[in-house]
């Protein structure tokens, strides 16, 4: 083959492989800009490998040498498998044969990956490939479906050649898995509470318009999102000037700090906490000139607290899809913290630039919050030796006492690049997850071509990639005056944000009826599972066949009924999660014996039906209660 023909073939393979593979967007860009690196080798056994810089990468893995790691990755492994280094994909193919779990490949050398893609057809379309830890973290939930576990394996040759990268990927996986567990645990514990609150609060939208009713009324108006991080102390006085140039949107915790300094009242106060924060809201909205943008899933006492117009909202969560059905509006995207909700509200209103203040997302100077907040006494001691954050309370005499903060006395230490790019700052897995959420948001805005400027004027804390960095003084000097009145915003919200009591009552009645149908379908599924289990125990082939046919019909009916009631999954979230994750010993037994697999499936089906039946009955009662209240 001539050199020109060989080049054309490599180019064609690369173009086709790039189009048919599951590569992250940054990896695609990096591959297109890279040159192929390495020499393709044919090993004595016929397998291919890649030689580069005096090393051989990707020789076929001896799976027996990986037995300890692979033993925990069965067909039904409920986590994610991350492979460090692609090589020629031998380890990845072996894993693909072994498990149904998502597989993510981290390739530390873009040029070597390009050489593989130029060599021949890509046969791993369902395997996701990334080339940077940041991209791995940003794409984690999208790629993995928020699975709570992960296991890292390495293709031969890679850990030794890319030791620093290997350590960085290990740290990234530890962060994202911690974040996933945090989100899953929060939802398991809180979903029921949130839905109870929604049922108590939803009738308010017949009088108090949803904040989403404003549409993009603030298009091109600057929005200053004020968090409660310790760096807020550096620029909080400039909010007096900022309020003349756009809208100030504070979270409930930072509102107290603003109120104590006699600054102009913020235009919005945002809250979504399930706990009762009425005392914070009372202080932050005492002037009566602040819009209270409070989630329908928040504590009912919070919605009743404070002065000023109430403009509720609801979150964009799978379990809250019923509210979209009721209101014909999209929920507000959130990332676990109230500041992410405030950012999304500003984004939906069309604000630009969106400016972050007090969003440290780190323990700047060993503190957790700005002065004037109810958490300004918290201090944090970080130790690289132990890898821990130890939480303290500062007393009036300057001494420190151990305290419980966010439910723990100590947490795992994470470090991330500081605002301004010089050095690193200490943070926690929780705050780091919020930082990643903002980075994903910035990336989404950029790729969607939305003409919105994002600026981080926190002047401390963690760097958030995708946001410009400058001081608030520098930014304000470039912005013209742009005064906004809350009265006009409320008028705009009322035009589209009100839902009539009759519509809410009809919605409650329809959803109660859906729950009733689910309850009946779940009862039939429960009985069908019992009959199938009995037939299996008697080992009667004809009875087994008939019972499994009935079970299949009951499953289809159950799925059809459940799809019409999205809140059921949320209400039963924690119980369903516990049922669908089997202990490892059960997984291994199922893989070794098809009968055990079938018996486990039938038992799980029956338990699932019981959970759904009870949950549907409970949810039906809540909807009937709402319907009854609205009848008066």
Task: Using the alpha-carbon principal axes, give the shape.
Answer: globular
Strand content: 5-15%
Number of helices: 24
The count of DSSP E runs of length 2 or more, i.e. the number of strands, is 21
Radius of gyration: 28 Å
User: For the largest beta sheet, what order do the strands appear in spatially?
Assistant: 12-11-10-9-13-20-21
Task: Profile the largest sheet.
Answer: 7 strands, parallel
The count of domains is 3
Helix content: 40-55%
What is the CA-CA span between the terminal residues?
A: 85 Å
Structural class: alpha/beta
Mean pLDDT: 85
Note poorly predicted spans: 62-69, 581-592
Structure notes:
With 632 residues, the chain is of the alpha/beta class. It folds into three domains: 3-183, Rossmann fold (3-Layer(aba) Sandwich); 207-361 and 428-496, no CATH class; 501-630, no CATH class. It contains 24 helices and 21 strands. The protein has a seven-stranded parallel sheet with strand order 12-11-10-9-13-20-21. A hairpin with a 2-residue loop joins strand 3 and strand 4 (55-57). Helix 8 (163-201) packs across helix 16 (429-447), helix 19 packs antiparallel against helix 20 and helix 19 (501-538) runs antiparallel to helix 24. The chain starts with a helix and ends with a helix. Residues 62-69 and 581-592 have low confidence and may be disordered.
